[in-house]
Write a structure and sequence with these properties.
It contains 15 helices and 13 strands. It has helices at residues 2-22, 92-95, 151-171, 188-192, 222-242, 251-262, 267-278, 296-317, 319-330, 335-343, 347-357, 365-369, 395-400, 408-422, 424-450; strands at residues 27-36, 40-48, 53-62, 72-74, 84-91, 102-112, 117-119, 123-127, 135-139, 142-146, 180-185, 204-207, 212-216. Strands 3, 4, 6, 7 and 8 form a 5-stranded antiparallel sheet that branches. The chain has a 5-stranded mixed sheet with strand order 9-10-11-13-12. A hairpin with a 4-residue loop joins strand 12 and strand 13 (212-216). Helix 3 packs across helix 5 (222-242) and helix 9 packs antiparallel against helix 10 (335-343). The radius of gyration is 32 Å and the shape is globular. The chain binds zinc ion (ZN). Zinc ion binds at residues 231, 235, 255, 258, 384-386.
Length: 451
Amino acid sequence: MKKFSAILVFFLMFSYAFVGIQSSSASVAQNDAELNFPENIVFSLDLKSADNVAQVKLHYGTIRDACGTVSALAYPEFTTGSSINALWEWNMLQSGGEPPGTTIWWQWEYIDQQGKSEFTDKKEILWLDDIHDWKLLEDGLIRFHYYENDIEYATTLKDAAVEALNHLHEDIGMLPDQPVDLYIYSSTQDMLDAVFYVPGWTGGLAYPDYNILIIGIDPDNLEWGQNTEAHELTHVLVGDYTFSCLGSTPTWLSEGLAVYGEGGASSFEAAFFQQNVKADTVMSFSVLSGGFSEDPDIADLSYSQSFFMVDYLIQTYGKEKMLSLLQRIKAGDAIDEALQYAYGFDLAGFQTEWRSYYDLPAWDEVSQQNLQNPTPVPTIIPIQGIDSQVVPSDPVALQSTPVAQPTQSSVSANGIVDWLSRNLILILVIIGVNCLLLIVIMLLVRQKGAK
Ligand SMILES: [Zn+2]
């Protein structure tokens, strides 16, 4: 028995030694990520006893709904030797940025001279600023993050989010499949500082793939904040319900539902919409299927009209058909097919029926084309937030200025050119008179000199 034990011990020692020879000699001394929110994140690796390492790769990505595994690969430069230091910067300005609150993961791969690769442990980090002292309130499927030093502000807005979720469940039958993270900034500017490439009038943003929404809510603007929460929460839910690798949800549908989730158009929005119905200046359904204009006035009509399109479908045909429309989009149907399946008409047919409901003549694509040239919003943003805080209070003024004003610099440059061309003759006369005076003075001086 003793003899057998000795053989076993020897065998085990031998096999450990054998495994030791086979494994890479490198060991991980340091493996970190440093956030410079919102500009970049720097991943760094320090490998000791790494003589045999020939290549280093970085695998990284975010935790979100995606079509298959989304993993980016970087080949950082590194110094060879007994100790290897590798650095890789993920530049958010170039990639378009990730929403605050995103979980970022990374994993290093190092490959030896024989082509054998090894991986470090997969690590995660929360992509969020450290300027604000973030606090958390949890309630059911709502995770409410805030930093405003006012518990009443926080509970009011948290309760409004919970209520909005219940209301959406009862009204349209939608419920999120995972908790939703709300990051509430104390001002619009604080929020805009945390994201890139969004229109200046954006008040909130929903990221349905991440189950995250961000809003800037001033403590003096709580009512607006509650509406916006409901709006953006609806986006997250619609995103969950329509997430598809094959197609996309038309903007009128997601924004119309979001306004529906808010509790409908405000009296101002409804009046503005009715004005446009009266003047037959409502927008084309196909235009509203793409990105909304950056111009606040056109955006306002886009949002309110989208609501009245969705509201017509829900009031006329019920919430079950709306859910079936969303399911068809999730299954990959284009909007024409999905509408046909749920309602028996395509987008053009829907437009005809809706316009006749408002006593408007059938859509004339050609004559309307020149009226509506939308400026598309940057496509890098998952879904645009509504909620301009700069909505003018006068609906007539809205209609009279449908085009963006030129910027200050072009106004002043054009102004000088205009003024010069208008006063050309006057300028020439002044120059002529001055020349004459100069000649007279010179003649007088000469005469004096001659005397
Ligand atoms: Zn929206």
